[in-house]
Amino acid sequence: MAHNVTVYSTPSCPYCIKVKEFLKQNGIEFQNIDVSQDHAQAEEMVRKSGQMGVPVIDIDGKIIIGFDKGKIKQALDI
């Protein structure tokens, strides 16, 4: 089953890099949004998560804050 996955990240965030590597290793397609460059998307991320920090992962509307491998696996059924 294909999931709708969006990663809100910044290029310098080590956990953002880990999240994207983890998704790639598991063959999960995702949209990456660089919130350091896109302020409208940064505001959307804060609205969705209540957080200023990255990474924020949106999996089918479920918001996961940080690189929480267990929650990501659960949301993706992997």
UniProtKB/TrEMBL annotation:
One of its GO terms (molecular function) is electron transfer activity. Residues 3-78 form the GST N-terminal domain. One of its GO terms (biological process) is cell redox homeostasis. Gene3D superfamilies: Glutaredoxin. InterPro entries: GLR_AS, GlrX_YruB, Glutaredoxin, Glutathione_S-Trfase_N, Grx-like_ET, Thioredoxin-like_sf. This is NrdH-redoxin.
